[in-house]
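User: Okay, second chain of the day. Same drill as before: sequence in, structure tokens out.
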Amino acid sequence: MIKTKPFYIGIAAAFLSTSFLFAKKEYDNNITAKLEAIAKFTKVVNTVQRYYVDPLSIQTIIEKSIAGLLSNLDAHSAYLDKKHYKELQIQTSGEFGGLGITVGMRDGALTVIAPLEGTPADKAGLKAGDIILKINDKSTLDMTLDEAVNLMRGKPGTKIKLTIFRKGEAKPFVVEITRAIIKVKSVYAKHILKPEYLYIRITNFDKKVVKDVKKILQKNRNIKGIVIDLRNNPGGLLDQAVGFSDLFIDKGIIVSQKGRVKSENRVYYAHKSATITDVPVVVLVNGGSASASEIVSGALQDHKRAVIVGEKTFGKGSVQVILPIDKDEAIKLTIARYYLPSGRTIQAKGITPDVIAYPGKVHKKEDAFALKEAELKAHLKSELEKIDGKKKKKKEKKKGEKNLINKKELYNDAQLKEAFDILKALIIAKESK
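Assistant: Same drill. Structure tokens below.
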């Protein structure tokens, strides 16, 4: 035993020595590669500065180089110079004039993800999937996403012209929109035909969504099922998407965030204590549903907690952070991607609904009588209200419009009608168990 010990120590020493030499060689190779790359970059910068048709300062060349680097990584990474960094700070800390539109890059084209309800963009008729070819007279084909967004922002009351290409239209058309302070109600609820069928519409995931939805669910304890409408919801805050999902899922992963830097990795779990209801749920989505909306619909789908109805979602599942370079400049960098409970990614793929349904009106022969009957009842009701007095009529009408989706409204929205039919089937299946 005593004789063999130095032998093992010798092997260990030799192994450590070899490992050290290998690591040192790899380190030296990395340093050499970096120096060669920096030398190449310096040579290009010097060549541009010397021969380019217009004189450029070294600062301008470096700024353009950084901007080019980041824009070539992905559609969401960007260089924020002094002007754009200040605009971002204004956007996140106060009110600003805008159109009420969320946009993204799809296949290199500036695409409308969704117009927010009640905003200038929505009133002007912009739709999810519209491609913005020009902002005023400037082509968007070579613009970065941040450049386009900054051009569309401006002083409330000022006008802007967007040249729009829409699938199915013969040629592009121009839309003139007046900028305004964007204030949108993010959550509202109604009942579909009867009080036991709850409809919750979420226009975007702002900081009050979970709080507002909790109140709605607590006020509607006796409901039989819920339709959650996330159509044209462009996303919002991650914590609100997680908290909202937690209201319906009692255990397991809701979403995870994974990147190269381990400290940025996160896993978000559901909690039984946070779950408010176990009634059947149907979720409506379309091409304007993105980011936080995709996290919610994807998590509910993976946990088999809801049936997803509508059209394929946008496919925005990456995480960006703002990293300051100095007090006046910063970079916006994609650092991670979101992954659903099943392990699938949202980025560029989106959520495929369990049931595909397209927008429009319901066209069925057997529904004609039902609609005529509903119109007749509405007419007779209005005649009765005339007898009861105008004051009562106005009150009842206002109450009905606020709290109830009637049959006519339901049949005017084919996707909602499909979702409602599926919800009723889920309720029947649950009650028969």
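DSSP finds twelve helices and 20 strands in the chain.

User: Thanks, on to the next one.
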